[in-house]
Amino acid sequence: MSTQPSATAAGTIEIGGDLTVNRLGFGAMRITGRGIWGDPPGRDQAIATLRRVVELGVNFIDTADSYGPEVSETLIAQALHPYPDDLVIATKGGQVRPGPNRWDPDGRPEHLREACEGSLRRLRLEQIPLYQLHRLDPKVPLAESIGAIAKLKDEGKIRHVGISNVTEGELREAQRIVPIVSIQNRFNVTDRHSQSLIDLCEQEDMVFLPWAPMQESSRRAAVAVAAERRGVTERQIALAWLLAISPATLPIPGTGSPEHAEENVAAAAIELGRGEIEAISKGGLSQLDGSPGREYVIPAKGCRSPVPTSGWRAASSTSPRR
Length: 322
Hints:
10 helices, single chain, globular, TIM Barrel, 34% helix, alpha/beta, two-stranded antiparallel sheet, 14% strand
C-alpha cells in the first residue's frame, strides 16, 4: 500500500522573514457554496477537508472575507480552532459580494478596517499573520487603501502585508507605504503574465501565491505526457511544475473534498525532470529527456531549484474576477 505524501515534501518557505511554512498550501475559496456564495452543500465535508489538509502537513491556509462571504473564515475557525502552533492563516479584504460569482472592489479605508476587524472575529485571532489587499479599487487611490492596511499593522492587528492582482508598478507604490511580503496573482501553465513578478519575489525575498494554479493544465501536451508517464493526474503535474520553476512560489490549490485534497498534496512529492519542466514551460514537447530518472532538483533552503525561464511567452487567458 502506497503511503500518502505530505506537504513537507515540498520543502519550506519563509514569509516575512519570521513565518516558516511548507511550500504547498491550501486555498479555502472552494469550501463555500456554488458561485463562492453561501454555505457549502455539505458543511461536514468542508470541515473534514480543512482538517485533512492540516493532517497532511499543510500549515498555510489562504482565505478572504469575500469567500461566502464570511463563510470560509467561519468554517476555518470552526474546523481548526484552537489552531496548531505552526499554522499560518492568510486572509484578504477589499472586495464585496453583491451575489454569486459577482465581485466588486471596495478599497475605501473604512471598509478595509471593517473587513479586517470582521476577519479577526470570525477567525478568532488576535492578529492576522498575513493580510492582503484583495484587489485594487479604481475609485480609491492605492495609497489610501494600503495606508489603511498599514495603520492596522501599526495597531498590531496585522503581522505582515501582502497584495493581490497587481502589476509591478502598483507593487512599488505599495512598498513605499508599507513592507510587502507577498504577491498573489493568477499564474499557471497557460497564464504566465506574472512571470516577472515571480522573478522579483526571488530577488526581494517575497512569496508568490499563484491563484488558479491548476486551471487549463490539460491544454499543455507536455503536461499530459508527464502525467501519463508517471501515472498521476495532469493537475498534479501542474502543481509539481509550479513548485519546480521557482523557490518563491507557494501554490494554494483549493477543493471542498478531502479526497481531492489528498491528491493535491501528493503533488508535493513529484520531482519533475529538467526536460519535463522545460517542455511544460515552453508549451510543447522538449527534445531533452524528461524521464523521472533525470531530475532537476537541487535543494536550496528546503526548496526546489528554479530553471531558466528566458524566452517564455505568456498565453492569453480569461477567468472570472477573483
